[in-house]
Each structure stands twice: as C-alpha cells, then as structure tokens.
Design brief:
mainly alpha; Hypothetical protein af1432; 57% helix; 3% strand; globular
C-alpha cells in the first residue's frame, strides 16, 4: 500500500501546509506522519494484546487498524487544511466534502487501481467486512449509546479509539503529530507517549469497552493537551502564517476557473495528481511557456515582438479560459514569495 501512487502522493503534501514559509524547518510531510501513525497504532495494539489477551485482538484487527492509520490522511489536498478548510468552502460553499471522506475514496481507489484485493485476501482480510471496518476507523467514532458500527461487534469498541478518538481526543494520530511538529518547529514537547503505551488498558465503562490509563499518568495527559495548545498558539495560528494562508487561498480561488482545481475532488485519479506542486504550476507555468516562445522567436529578431505576442495569445486561447484570473493568482503568489504581505487580513466571524 505504501508503494502506490495514492500513498506516495503524500510525500508532496506538507504536514503543516504553508507554515514552512514562516518556520523554515516545517517541511515535513503527510507521508512520514502517516507511517508514524501506523507504527504507533501497532505499538498500542501490541501493548493491549500482551497485557490483556482476553480481548481477543486478532491478526485481522491488527492489519485493519494499521491500514486505517496509514491511510487516514490520504484525502488531504494541497497545503493540508488550507485546501479543505479554506479553499473548498469558498469555491463550493454548499459542498459537504471533507478530507476524511476523500481519504476513504482514495483508499478504495488505491485498492482497485493497484489490484490489492488478492493481497488483502491472502492476509486473511474480508474484502467486505474489513473494508467497512477500515472506513469506519477513518470516518467515525463510537459516541452513540446504541452500537451502530458494522465492521466490528460492540466487544471490539475500543479499536475505534486508536486512530481517531472522537470521545476524548487521545489517539495515536495526535501522539505522532505532536512529537513530529514540535521537533521540526523547535518547540519543546512536554508529552511522552511511551508512558501512555505502557499504562493503557481496556476497561468496561458504562457497559462499553474503552481504552483507559492509570491515574499516575494524568499529568502526562494534561501535558499532551498543553503541548497541543502551545503548538497552536506559537505556530499553527501564527499571524503571518494566517496571512500567507489567506493569500494562497485567494490565488487558488482565482486559478480554480482556468485550472479546474476543485474538480479533482470528484475524481480520485485526478486528485492523486493534485499536490503542493500546484503552487509552482501557477507561479511558473505561463512564464516558462512564454520564455520558450520568445526563445524560439529570437531566431529571427525582426519578428521577435510579433512572434512572442502570437505565441502568448495562442497559449492563452488553448489552455486557459480566463488568463486574467491566472495572472492575478500568479501575482499573489509572487507577493508571497517576495514577502510583499499586508500587515493584517480580516478573520471570518
């Protein structure tokens, strides 16, 4: 699964979006984060299985949870949350689209296009039940009083708290990004997930099985949430970072008409090609094409100006409906690159 185009795409999706333009070290990607989450999911499952064999955690449970952990972020678009939190709501204001749904769609696309059904069956996975289970792990928690999950029965409810815990937010996704983001941003990490791994136990709470932790690690859990707060306050909600987000979002919105960027969310094969590279495509594509035309025209200097104009007009008519919007988008990105930024931008209510 790691060696598929759908997963390798994550090498080109930065974990912290545009924050590398403020914090030079923040260039890590969703690729290594996803591998880290899958690794930690396996660590937590092994700890629970070793300490509580009566839980009957099967090989198939291990595989499904780790696959969900591996694939949980495949639906992120360029610059991560900028795409699904700012760009899509503006160009498709009534769309219910979320990156978690896209992660599930990308997972199904990955299985189908790379012929992984047989390998899944060889590893003992049920193509119907286990794929539903993986989808539920990515999409849902288990907050309802009445058990509604179809992938696993209620005695396996604790498995739904490993990748994305909708009850209390203590999950391996958070454990990985806290350590990874703090490392690359140079922010102290006041949280040690190893202590939680050792003390994790499944207990019956209100007639349902939940992952619980010893009272002696309460301070460590408080440290986890405080570290998250520090990350947001010092880096993720940085004023200049937000200004850059707004400017790049504006550029993407302008380029959406000519480039049909948002259409990719309807076709996972197209979405596989959509990465952070869209920034460079908007910034450089037209300039590169025009320079090529001008270079060819220099073969006859008397016709230089006329040839360049003809090439440029032909290119505009062929490739873009609204070259003016693309030019404006490129201008915005040039301002970002050259640090010509406004002092502030208005935040939405």
């Amino acid at each position: 699964m790691i060696d598929t185009p759908q997963f390798q795409r994550l090498r080109h999706i930065k974990q912290l979006g545009t924050k590398y333009l403020v914090f030079p070290g923040a260039t890590h990607t969703r690729f290594e984060h996803s591998i880290g989450v899958a690794y930690l999911a396996g660590c937590l499952l092994r700890s629970l299985h070793y300490n509580q064999p009566e839980l009957n955690i099967t090989k198939q449970d291990f595989l499904c949870v780790q696959i969900a952990a591996l694939c949980h972020d495949m639906g992120h678009g360029p610059f991560s949350h900028l795409f699904d939190g700012m760009f899509i709501p503006e160009v498709r204001p009534n769309s219910p689209w979320e990156h978690e749904e896209a992660s599930v769609d990308m997972f199904h696309c990955m299985i189908k296009k790379n012929g992984l059904e047989k390998e899944m069956e060889q590893h003992g996975l049920n193509l119907y039940e286990d794929r539903i289970f993986i989808k539920e792990l990515i999409l849902k928690g288990q907050k309802d009083a009445k058990w509604s999950m179809k992938g696993r029965t209620e005695d396996k409810s604790f498995l739904y708290e490993i990748v994305a815990n909708k009850l209390n937010g203590i999950d391996v996704d958070k454990w990985d990004y806290l350590a990874r983001d703090c490392h690359y941003l140079g922010i102290p990490n006041g949280f040690d997930h190893e202590r939680l791994l050792k003390s994790a136990r499944v207990c019956d709470v209100n007639k349902r099985r939940h992952i619980c932790f010893r009272d002696k690690v309460a301070e460590n859990i408080y440290g986890m949430f405080h570290t998250r707060y520090t990350l947001h306050r010092q880096a993720l909600q940085h004023k200049i970072g937000y200004i850059i987000d707004v400017k790049i979002k504006d550029a993407l919105v302008l380029a959406d008409g000519p480039l049909k960027i948002s259409n990719a969310i309807d076709d996972m094969l197209e979405y596989t090609e959509l990465t952070d590279h869209i920034f460079d495509q908007i910034l450089n594509k037209s300039n590169t094409h025009l320079k090529k035309c001008v270079g060819e025209a220099r073969l006859n200097e008397e016709k230089l100006e006329q040839k360049a104009e003809e090439c440029f007009q032909k290119w505009c008519e062929k490739d873009f409906i609204d070259s003016d919007n693309l030019s404006k988008a490129r201008s915005i990105l040039e301002d970002v690159v050259n640090r010509r930024l406004p002092k502030f931008v208005e935040r939405p209510d």
